[in-house]
Design goal:
It is a single chain. By secondary structure, the chain is α/β, with parallel strands linked by helices. About 40% of the residues lie in helices and about 10% in strands. Strands 1, 2, 3, 4, 5, 7, 9 and 10 form an eight-stranded parallel beta sheet that branches. A two-stranded parallel ribbon has the order 6-8. It is globular, with a radius of gyration of 18 Å.
């Protein structure tokens, strides 16, 4: 598929968009089957050193009540997730440097020893030595969205950061043998269809194992607080194109998609997604992990959220996965 073809399809609407998503869903069925893999997320700290222009966790947001879970609480929550029969736990936080590489490595090794689950990390940019330590401790996967492959747009959205360093981190993770996930934000001010096409081609070139696009939902206490949200139709087209470009990718139907559109996760599954990531953060703090406003899951009892996921998978006429649900391309030791 050429860059011009990709650019044109990003803006597809009506029957053309429906056909694009049907094709992606069929490629998904042939490439990775009808299993939906469930990953339980623990958002263990909302401290962050970064200044991203849209994110409620940004360092400059003085109105956010900060929290950190203690290591034993993280391990206990992971044990609860394992008891549900889920094969993966996702440990996610802001870029919180209180969490040294050694501290987090201890949590990873404790979870692996107690549960045997796959461990996915999503804690931002770190040195290669930190990534290596976590890999040695048992981490299997790493999520690090590139956000946008346009260097100038990246610089505007991420003061004091650079796309060059983000790409370096992704390359380090790939070299260390992680299953690596990335993705872009749809709806950033100044973004073009050509820029979004480059995001898709970037993911294809990197040959990522996981990931996909998500909509911009700006937090009101950020510089982008008055900007409109990203168009869900464009997000779904982008998801379909990711599936066409990387047929065996593990791609989530995200909570942000559900927040932007009632029924968004179902629409995502129908556009090529095969992963659901319910938020299983302890409810005492879940609402404080406010990357964007209006998150659905923190207002639900954990058991209610889990049942909603099961019902969603049944309604999609798909099967809930068992086990870790590794990427088909993963080289497992």
């Amino acid at each position: 598929m050429t860059r011009d073809e990709i650019t044109a399809l990003i803006g597809a609407r009506g029957a053309e968009a429906e056909e694009l998503r049907r094709e992606a869903d069929e490629i998904r069925r042939r490439g990775v089957g009808d299993v939906v893999h469930v990953r339980g997320i623990i958002e263990f700290s909302n401290y962050c050193r970064c200044h991203c222009a849209y994110c409620g966790l940004r360092h400059d947001n003085a109105g956010l009540e900060r929290y950190r879970l203690e290591p034993p609480e993280i391990v206990d929550t992971a044990g609860f997730i394992a008891s549900l029969g889920f094969g993966t736990v996702v440990l996610q936080s802001g870029e919180d440097m209180w969490w040294t590489a050694q501290r987090l490595a201890g949590v990873i090794s404790d979870i692996k020893a107690a549960t045997g689950m796959a461990v996915t990390l999503s804690v931002g940019e770190r040195d290669a030595a930190d990534y290596r330590l976590w890999r040695d401790a048992g981490a299997d996967r790493y999520l690090l969205r590139h956000e946008t492959a346009d260097p100038e747009l990246y610089a505007r959205m991420h003061p004091q950061a650079s796309l060059e360093n983000r790409v370096r981190c992704l390359e380090n993770l790939m070299e260390l043998g992680y299953q690596v996930g990335t993705g872009c934000i749809v709806g950033l001010p100044g973004q073009s269809a050509e820029s979004l096409a480059e995001d898709l081609l970037f993911m294809q070139r990197l040959n990522i194992h996981m990931g996909g696009p998500g909509p911009l939902i700006p937090h009101p206490d950020t510089p982008l607080g008055s900007e409109p949200a990203g168009a869900v139709e464009t997000v779904l087209n982008m998801m379909a194109l990711v599936r066409l470009l990387i047929p065996d990718i593990m791609m989530p139907a995200t909570t942000s998609l559900e927040t932007a559109l009632e029924g968004g996760r179902m629409a995502g599954l129908q556009a090529g997604a095969n992963v659901i990531m319910p938020n299983l953060t302890p409810r005492s703090v879940a609402a404080k992990y406010e990357i964007y406003p209006g998150k659905k899951a923190p207002g639900l009892d954990v058991h209610t959220e889990i049942q909603r996921v099961r019902d969603l998978i049944d309604a999609a006429e798909r099967t809930m996965g068992t086990g870790p649900g590794h990427s088909p391309r993963a080289c497992l030791s």
